[in-house]
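**User:**
If convenient, please work through this fold.
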Amino acid sequence: MAKKPKKQQHRIGAREAHSNRDGGGRRVGGTPATVALTAAGVDFTVHAYDHDPSHPSYGEEAAEAMGVSPDRVFKTLVADVDGALTVAVVPVAGSLDLKALASAVGGKRAAMADPTLAERTTGYVRGGISPLGQRKRLPTVLDDSATTHPTICISAGRRGLEVELSGTDLAKLTEAVLAPIARG
């Protein structure tokens, strides 16, 4: 049985998030995603859980660990659309429709990006890629089902850490195109 996730309302000040550092120069107060949310003044909740490296799906693991329906937990995928990296955010309960993604950004063809390139470009590791606080801001498409829920959960920037926020806030912060890009 999965451990109950730690849940906390996370409304620290932007200065605190940026200035709390341990001796190694890392931010103690959060990830780049939570720092971005705090700086934007958006209400969000952090959900932490013990990540199991043997679990076959990062997103399904997060939904199970938090006790949240998989249609409210969204995964962040990086795709190559006509030679340009693009972020797709879809429910873990489904899969990404690559043709719909390409169409949403005015492209012709989309394929999943090389995982190493996705990690290097976003600054996050697979299973912890967040649409927020990326090293290089990429065009983002958010599945339109995100706005049908009061809140959704997305990666907070590392495995075992999710943030819950409104889909509308996520769309605004990432300047996302809302489109039906999920299947199933």
Notes: Confidence is low (pLDDT under 50) at residues 1-28. The first helix runs from residue 14 to 19. The first strand starts at residue 6 and ends at 9. Residues 45 and 88 are 22 Å apart (CA to CA).
